[in-house]
Amino acid sequence: MIDTPPRAEPGSTAPATVKLANTQLPIANVTGWERKLSTGLGVALISRGIKNGGGVGLAEIGAGGLLLTRGLTGHCSMKAMFKQPDQELHYLQDELRKAKHSLADLYRQKANLASTTH
Length: 118
Known about the structure:
By secondary structure, the protein is mainly alpha-helical. The chain has helices at 32-52, 54-73, 77-83, 85-117; strands at 17-20, 23-26.
């Protein structure tokens, strides 16, 4: 079972993320029946997309993957953008910054590997 990240109290000014071992986890904003429904619909759409194939099947797989992720993590960025836009934007900016640094590290490693093999 996947643990639900802690939620901020209503009206709280607590940040929308929890710092855990150099990783920020978004606060759960999808709970209960909504989370179970997202998970179930995600699995159903992925299955249907695999069965149907083609462009429509690929779209179903993509939508199902988003719903499954929403259900498993308990976080929906679209919902957070409407309820806590500033906090969600900060979270997404941090994620983009981390991705940029990871990509830069990969390019450096590739350059180092290329220089040692020649």
